[in-house]
């Protein structure tokens, strides 16, 4: 949906919504170790999507820890694009983050309408924390690449699509106990 924020529509015939009401799936399906990952396509939703594993470094209160956390956070967002499951991602995100809430709302809208997305793979080739020792919050500059997204309705008919994007993101995180939590995020530049 990062590309959806650049003018694409998250659902066939609908506009992106900044609504904060959303429903996350109640259970996280766990693929069996022998189940083969099948990406989403016109034939159906993604299956057996590997759940991102949090690196131990991601909880460290350090520049390297924050950068590892940021990569993990975006991996969880990518998992949400494929599955509609944003439970863990949401637990690491403050509800006051308007941009994050918009992404969550858009993803939940697609999956609650029995639709799905194909493509949209998120990668973060460049992550740089602007570390300030002792600061209550820290900023991270992230290059986010997202592949083209195609949206399908419950019958598998193609709807709208969002083009591939290459976006510079500023992410603000703070310590929440012994872990990081995203408190704000937005695009850099226009």
Q: What report would you give on this structure?
A:
The protein is an alpha+beta fold and 190 residues long. It has a single domain (4-11, 58-187), classed as Nuclear Transport Factor 2, Chain: A (Roll), CATH 3.10.450. The chain is built from three helices and seven strands, in the order αααβββββββ. The protein has helices spanning 63-83, 87-91, 98-112, and strands at 116-119, 122-130, 137-146, 149-152, 158-162, 165-176, 179-187. Strands 2-3-6-7 form a four-stranded antiparallel sheet. It has a three-stranded antiparallel sheet with strand order 1-4-5. A hairpin with a 5-residue loop joins β4 and β5 (158-162). The longest helix has 21 residues, at 63-83. The chain is globular.
Summarize, please:
By secondary structure, this protein is of the alpha+beta class. It has helices at residues 63-83, 87-91, 98-112, and strands at residues 116-119, 122-130, 137-146, 149-152, 158-162, 165-176, 179-187.
**CATH class division:** Alpha Beta
Q: Which strand-content bin applies to the residues?
A: 25-35%
Rough shape? globular
**Strand order in the sheet with the most strands:** 2-3-6-7
Q: Work out the radius of gyration.
A: 16 Å
Provide mean pLDDT, rounded. Answer: 85
Distance between the termini: 16 Å
Number of structural domains: 1
The helix content, as a percent range, equals 10-25%
Describe the sheet with the most strands.
Answer: 4 strands, antiparallel
Keywords summarizing the entry:
globular, four-stranded antiparallel β-sheet, 190 residues, 3 helices, alpha+beta, Nuclear Transport Factor 2, Chain: A
């Amino acid at each position: 949906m990062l590309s959806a924020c650049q003018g694409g529509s998250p659902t066939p015939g609908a506009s992106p919504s900044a609504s904060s009401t959303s429903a996350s799936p109640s259970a996280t399906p766990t693929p069996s170790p022998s189940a083969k990952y099948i990406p989403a396509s016109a034939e159906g939703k993604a299956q057996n999507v590997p759940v991102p594993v949090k690196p131990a470094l991601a909880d460290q209160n350090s520049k390297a820890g924050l950068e590892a956390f940021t990569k993990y956070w975006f991996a969880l967002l990518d998992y949400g694009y494929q599955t509609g499951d944003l439970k863990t991602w949401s637990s690491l995100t403050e509800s006051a983050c308007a941009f994050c809430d918009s992404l969550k709302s858009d993803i939940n809208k697609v999956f609650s309408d029995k639709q799905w997305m194909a493509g949209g793979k998120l990668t973060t080739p460049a992550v740089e924390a602007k570390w300030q020792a002792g600061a209550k919050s820290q900023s991270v500059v992230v290059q986010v690449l997202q592949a083209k997204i195609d949206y399908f309705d419950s019958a598998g008919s193609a709807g709208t699509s969002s083009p591939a994007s290459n976006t510079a993101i500023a992410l603000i995180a703070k310590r929440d106990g012994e872990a990081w939590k995203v408190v704000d995020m937005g695009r850099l530049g226009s």
